[in-house]
Amino acid sequence: MSYKYHMPTKVFSGKNCIINNSELLAAFGRKAMIVSGRSSAKNNGSQDDVIKALQKENLSYVIFDKVMSNPTIAVSYEGAAFAKEHDVDFIIAIGGGSPLDAAKAMALMVRQDIKQENLFNGKYGSDVLPVIAIPTTAGTGSEVTQYAILTNDAVESKTSIATELIFPKIAFLDATYTKELPVETTINTSIDALSHAVEGMMTVRSSVVSDALAKESIRLFVKCVPAMKAALGKTTGSEVNQSIRENLARCSMLAGMVIAQTGTTIVHGMGYSLTYFKDIDHGRANGLLLAEYLRLVEKEAPDLTGKILAAMSLTTVDDFKTLLETLLGEKEDINKEEIRKFSGKAAKAPNINNCRVRPTEENIKDIYTASF
Ligand code: NAP
Ligand code: FE
Question: Which of 130, 146, 247, 320 has the fewest beta carbons closer than 10 A?
Answer without folding.
Answer: 130
